Amino acid sequence: MLNPSILEKLQQISGKDHVLTDKADLICYSYDATQRQFLPDVVVHPADADEISRIMQLANAEKIPVFPRGAGTGFTGGSVPVAGGIVLGLSRLDRILEIDEENLVATIEPGVVTEDFQKTVEKVGLFYPPDPASLKVSTMGGNVAECAGGPRCVKYGVTKDYIIGLEIVTPTGDIIKTGGPTMKGVVGYDLTKLICGSEGTLAIMTKIVVKLLPKPEAKKTMLVMFSSIDGAAQAVSAIIRGKIIPTTLEFLDARTLECVRNATDLDVPEAAQAVLLIEVDGDREFLDGQTRKISAIVQPLGVVETRIAETPEESEALWQVRRSISASLRQVNPDKYNEDICVPRSRVPDMIRKIEAIADKYNIPIVNYGHAGDGNIHVNIMVDNAVPGEQEKAEKAIVEVFEGTLELGGTMSGEHGVGIMKAPFLNMELQDNVIDYMKTIKKALDPNNILNPGKIFPSDVRAH
Amino acid sequence: MAKLKKLADYRDEIEQCVKCGGCRAYCPAFGAEKHEGRVARGKIALADSLLKGDVELEEKFLLDMSQCLLCGSCYSQCPNKVHTEDIVAATRREIAERKGLSTFGKGVGTILKHQGVMNLLAKGGGAFSKLLFKKVPEQSGLRLRFPAPFITKDRTLPPLTAKPFRERHPERIPGEAGKPTVLFFTGCGINYMYPDSGEALLKALKFIGVNIIIPKAQACCGLPAVSAGAADTVESLAADNLKVFQQYQYDYIVTACASCHSGLTQIYPGMGDEFDPYKDKVRDIFVFLVEQGFAEKLSELPKAENPIRVTYHDPCHLRNHGITKEPRAILKALPQVDFAEMEAAGTCCGLGGTYSVYHYDTSKKIGAKKAGFIAASGAALVATDCPGCIMQLQDSLNHAGEKQQVVHILDLVAEALP
Ligand SMILES: Cc1cc2nc3c(=O)[nH]c(=O)nc-3n(C[C@H](O)[C@H](O)[C@H](O)COP(=O)(O)OP(=O)(O)OC[C@H]3O[C@@H](n4cnc5c(N)ncnc54)[C@H](O)[C@@H]3O)c2cc1C
Ligand code: SF4
Ligand code: SF4
Known about the structure:
The structure holds two protein chains of two kinds.
Chain A: H1 4-14, E1 19-20, H2 23-28, E2 42-44, H3 49-62, E3 66-69, E4 86-89, E5 96-100, E6 105-108, H4 114-123, E7 126-127, H5 140-146, H6 153-156, E8 163-169, E9 175-179, H7 191-195, E10 204-211, E11 213-214, E12 218-226, H8 229-241, E13 248-252, H9 254-263, E14 274-282, H10 284-298, E15 303-308, H11 312-323, H12 325-329, E16 335-342, H13 348-362, E17 366-371, E18 376-383, H14 390-407, H15 426-429, H16 432-445
Parallel strand pairs in A: 2-4, 3-4
Antiparallel strand pairs in A: 1-2, 5-6, 6-10, 7-11, 8-9, 8-10, 12-14, 12-15, 13-14, 13-17, 16-18, 17-18
Chain B: H1 11-15, H2 28-32, H3 40-51, H4 59-66, H5 73-77, H6 84-99, H7 101-105, H8 108-113, H9 117-123, H10 130-134, H11 141-145, H12 165-168, E1 172-173, E2 181-185, H13 187-193, H14 195-207, E3 211-213, H15 223-228, H16 231-247, E4 252-255, H17 258-267, H18 276-279, E5 282-284, H19 285-291, H20 294-299, E6 308-312, H21 316-319, H22 325-333, E7 337-339, H23 355-358, H24 360-376, E8 381-384, H25 387-399, E9 405-408, H26 409-416
Parallel strand pairs in B: 2-3, 2-4, 4-5, 6-7, 6-8, 8-9
Antiparallel strand pairs in B: 1-3
The structure holds flavin-adenine dinucleotide (FAD) and iron/sulfur cluster (SF4) (2 copies).
One iron/sulfur cluster binds at residues 17-23, 40-41, 44, 74, 78, 80, 82, 84 of chain B.
């Protein structure tokens, strides 16, 4: 419980209606998609940067931790209040402030939902490419804080590639601007990029300046089934070597296909041991040529079947194979540990083989799918936590998956960030002096360690 | 007697929620008020906490649980197919059990006993005459849907009919020999407010020559009582209807109300195996008509020269059960209809059982969105398959100053038939 005088001050800043302390309210802001739950002491929904600045000043004076929160769809616990304190809900900052069609730049507030932003710019023929699977609900603030990625990132890059400026409230309560609406800018450190992916530990974003592209005229989807994962992986390299960069290059491994076969009536032949879902975009007249060229390139690599969508409905049917994964996995086992490792593109088959060996060693199902185009593999370790010993097995398997990833020159997380879930493993990937460098930045900017403590760096923050 | 499940029976269902937050994109209550307590994920977390004893039945808890339309929009898009609408309904029953009915439904108890309600109803505008309302049985869902707070000057309500539908017809209307027999489960909406849609249904059934039974003793399906957390009422209504189902010989039970369809196919079968022999007999009227080749028959009718543009609203309780094609198939086959799909046809109208009674403001917000989509479709008429939706959609359109009229698809069918 916070001292009543602090609550009163919060109410003075944001208004009574926007300061929540009832137990039922606290429960509703205690979790994210990790399903980890920590109760905050209070939930505040500020209206603007000015209120946030005053809240941060108060929090520093009283040494109360503050946890910024978007939609709470994070996969690493970035928004959960591990040390109680204040959950700072940013849903009221949800305006699209400007779309500058001349300069292809938009300025928005962080609470804007990703898909709403995309649809709005598409209405005027513009395009914001990053497309995390959670885009119907995730916020742009959360996307920038985690540097979210998605299937389209093979061709278009990740969130940070589109963020050129920010307005932020610093951990100590100053309101500053970084970058701006220009396509270039090298005056001083690139603070914008530092904040991107900082998981809400260095600043609270209150405005985001986004670079846009012209919207591609059309897209075309194809599904290619391979007799082996090697064929599929070679296909990825061959396509890119052939000077075609598809928008999307998603893969499903054999175990994933087995789940899809068992759980749905989608037609996936037994002979298919790996699938690539490929999408190309651009001017309509070029797309047929591109899909033909891709078909020709991949043909010698053990193709079982190729399906090319001619209509949006057919395209949707092909995507259905990818979209059905999440639900079909639950038929394997009720609990899932979901990692999003990333290896150099060409090492995907090596990584899959390593994972298969780990799965055999511990005798637990591990299914893999993801963004083959950028080597980003969603590793799903499926267990039943109710069975004694399964959870421990899963935890050991995770460590081995990380070890294997690092051996291949990869990283533990391509998209989801570190948060609380990967913090214990941070020193597997980063050397001590790197961690120190990062901590020095954090300490300089947030001397009282009140902005999203307990995240990224393993720490001794008291858990409620 | 068949019993509704308790909240504790939903433990496994609650565990199925992985907190992905996907429901935030589909929940109409959350769309109207962006508070996590409004959305399925939050309600599941609250129900979980209640079961674990981590939260009391405090004011905010009750508010969040009341802010749910039981529309199942969350369920229909949930990757893990979690039935939040059932969890919320069970939580409401738990609340009613612990604190009494009136705590939650604010006056549900009084309405069931109908003390003083009549006077209020009479005051609330001409549509509801005291005398006519007396004809509505005490346990009818209409009483839950139209308690005192519901009747306000700015709400458009259909008038109650002077002669309820079931009083107008004999129990049995024979058809052609060899044709199937259908039991028409009218529901309260058609019986008391929209009898013309019932007449239209009879015309369509007679057109294809089936034998019809309209049992006089049938009761309210109980869905509004589910919404109000009134377990005893639901159970006694289900028992009454079970008797009716057992009493006659027939091949199908048809409904022309999405809520009734949901009550008969989802709520009753979950209450016990007594309903097993009947649940597969239940058909939404348009599913039945399509099965009987009615769309082809309509297509043979001469086309109108100036067809009228009509769009379709999917009632949640049909959409959730995958019934989306059949109503459209009939609409498209109608000779006088130029069908136009609207954006977001499958989003909730905002009525939600007793929701709009106690949350008229948010209900209106949800309705206003829908009215916008309807207007944008360029249609002159919105057709749907549920009296509750008809009432709510018309109210929303009137508030928005839009000119479209809302009809039951059956009304258009009757108009087209010779
Ligand atoms: C079903 C599902 C699919 C997903 N698919 C993908 C995917 O394909 N790719 C991907 O990259 N991720 C994916 N994610 C993960 C998640 O959606 C992303 O990390 C997303 O960016 C989180 O956004 P959010 O608004 O929910 O943020 P939250 O979860 O609320 O917060 C995430 C982090 O951002 C911080 N934060 C939020 N707003 C601000 C702000 N204004 N200023 C400073 N910090 C802030 C929080 O403190 C926290 O550290 C998926 C998640 C789910 C549940
Ligand atoms: S109810 Fe379904 S969609 Fe909503 S958070 Fe839970 S699992 Fe996700
Ligand atoms: S049933 Fe409808 S109102 Fe209730 S939580 Fe689900 S989507 Fe929201």
